């Protein structure tokens, strides 16, 4: 029957788990299999999608490890890795999806994926914005910035806000949200190019290159002579230590990620925790999945901001599935400028 012929399905497959150290491209491989462009007979409530864009995210580093008791499952050796992406429905046996629908959510790092539990996906309604935005600004990273800043930090106009890894997928948004609210915002990043972006494109009040600061405590005192009300934590380690000493009374820290620790065998100790007592600091970790019920509310807020030019978003696009392993690993050396995504197909 037409539409049932097999087509090539290129995949990014895990070769080795990497428990410590920087993963290498050779820990993954590109394989080719084939797939029929139909949901298999008798498979109810499933969809077959063609993947368009894949999101590279720091949390995926943990999935390259052999994990026990983590909030995310390890990738399986010999199977395609998966993550957030944007895809188009090719075939469906699910009443909520039809051929041609666009979705974002967890999909395979391959050309086509059979998704047997599509209830966790989001259907894309707004197509008058770049579709790639659903890998970041209008997807998981956007919701992370929104939930972490507004729900966890309870920000108020005029407060002093610090964002680490500020030019990344989440950080660039937190800074812009804080500016829209009328806060004073400083960000740090790892290159002159990124620092310039923070100041000139994203509207941060100030920014610094942490690699050029021999003393992080001094850098923060220079940027925040009055101290920090809100720290959006993406880095951990020495940065967190320096921040704790510079927080104001009743300061809030949203612990979103700690990318400086993900490749370490021995995690860095934090020495300044004592400050949370006299300063009554509230530090809270969070997972974006706990806040997805707010997604419709987020869209109502963010879409007008995008259309009015109040929010800008910088993406770093890698072309083709073959480039996906290098794009993912590049997150951990700061190679990307802005939101890292992989273009699998333009249609």
UniProtKB/TrEMBL annotation:
Keyword set, alphabetical order: Oxidoreductase
Record-given protein name: Enoyl reductase (ER) domain-containing protein
InterPro entries (UniProt xref): ADH-like_C, ADH_N_2, ER, GroES-like_sf, MDR_fam, NAD(P)-bd_dom_sf
Record bears the keyword Oxidoreductase: yes
Presence of keyword Oxidoreductase: yes
Superkingdom of source: Eukaryota
Gene Ontology annotations of biological process type: response to oxidative stress
Domain Enoyl reductase (ER): 47-342
GO terms, molecular function: 2-alkenal reductase [NAD(P)H] activity
CDD domains membership: double_bond_reductase_like
PANTHER family tied to this protein: PROSTAGLANDIN REDUCTASE, PROSTAGLANDIN REDUCTASE 1
Stored Gene3D superfamilies: Medium-chain alcohol dehydrogenases, catalytic domain, NAD(P)-binding Rossmann-like Domain
